Task: structure prediction
Amino acid sequence: MQKNGFWQEIKKNKVLYLMFLPVGIYYILFAYIPMGGIILAFKEFNYRDGILFSPWNGFKNFEYFFSSGRAWLVTKNTILYNLAFLAAYTVFSVACAIAIAELAGKIYKKFIQSVMFLPYFVSWVVVSAMMYNFFNYDYGLINTVIKNFGGQPIDIYSNPIYWYFLLPMLYVWKWVGYGSVLYLAAIMGFDEECYEAAIIDGANIFQRIFYITIPMLKPTMIILILLALGRILRGEFDMFYQIIGNNGLLLDYTDIIDTLVFRSLMQVQDIGMASAAGAYQSVLCFVIIMVVNWLVRRYDKDYALF
Amino acid sequence: MRKGKDYILFNIIGYIFITIIGMFTFIPFVVLVVSSFASENYIINHGYTLIPGEFSLNAYKLIFQNPQRIIRAYIITIIVTAVGTSLSLFLSTMAAYVMYRKDVKYRNALAFFLYFTTLFNGGLAPYYIILANYYHLKNNVLVLILVPLFNVFYILILRNFIRGSIPDSLIESAKIDGAGDFTIFLRIVLPLSKPALASIGLFIALNYWNDWWTPMMFIEKQNLYPLQYTLYLILSSVNVAANILQNVVRIDMPKETLKLAMTVVATGPIIFLYPFVQRYFVRGITLGAVKG
Result:
């Protein structure tokens, strides 16, 4: 009966299902088949036998990955950087969105908003050129300024400590325009009546922001933060790779799971390490998303992702 | 609006705040462009400055004397972006339309089939090996189009847009008039989705334009390198000039400013188009902000 229903449905809407086919086939080829490739993590890969026929080696790759001493380091780095990014991004995006929504005047606001959105359009490759422009030891703008004031130039590319501060700043620089548009869209959708009532009750602008705007932004913030938490183990590979690259001095402080996987796979040709670290990342990521979503569903169904 | 003291105070703080943010965003762009026009000697003696020291076009002259490599990279990028964006937009909207049609029984299953790929994947290693060794996409221009081709979130945003802007009754009446499912898509859905198509299309195009990851992973032949990856190689090479010019390099070549001039040449068009396309991007983000 069920089967019958299935074929009947396909027959009835065959044109529509055919129209979905290009996207469907693409995702089977480029997402579901590689997904099955996760078995690579439990194999001793060689090119002659390929993924399917290479011999199994149980948890050897994982043992190797966890005993290398890098597993905990890259996990910690990934999570801490992502938390710092998320906190800085959320605070600045919300602050900019509120400022743009509430400030008097129009033209200047619009102009600043356009400027803020500019970094979203340039690739991390271009950003790395700008970074070089600013922080290069010999000629960089920062050191030029320091020297002009008679100070000692600083060598940022060999001092890990600066990057804990610099990378979140860079992240905000790149994404704050995007984030503020997102939050501004939410603010524009608010009901005017609340504000009017508050004004009649004598609330000043700061009270309106703290007691109306921010609480009303909460659902949007929660959803965006949850989405980001679900991706907490996925680092910003583009950013780390372009800005820091293969700088050995900074490696221990800026190595994230994604850069480790990339290095193992493309530079060291260590497929076992790459596939174990990648599988560890994927599975944990999946578990985190499920747990976060389940918690949210229990708390309030409306906030859940699915 | 009562304009009390609080309102004035808020505006003072707010204007200072957004001005600082604006400067923080904009200064790197200014420094990049200004420095690319500085003379090499000035940079070596004084370092980079906000205000241009000595004006010089040397770096640009050098690039335009021997532009073959850059022009080639531009052509590859333009072709990949144009073909990829059109293909992606057409097929994505088609899939979105199928998932919007109420009479498709498995529409939610199809949506989940797409959504699941964002929750779980096999990691980079199997992905790379399957594309390189099983699909033989290494050093194949197609890989530049295929890897960034679809984005699940864009497809779902398109579906929500169609759902919100095209009434079912319109589809129904077209069916009664004897239009087939594909005809309805071409004649009704595509024209009515123009606002969303413009926004999502620009997002897709930007992803193609800025993609350096795919060529880094899958392209080894120099004549297939797109723009961003060419720029990356030039920036990361020790001898920049040699990398651009492919002929005998003189000692007195600008090395410092060349990097920056190259970056400006590669980024110029994007910044130039920016004022015209910005509002579509803003609209696109707003479309995506509505939960699907």
Remarks:
- Chain A touches chain B through 102 residues (CB under 8 Å).
- The first helix of chain A runs from residue 2 to 12.
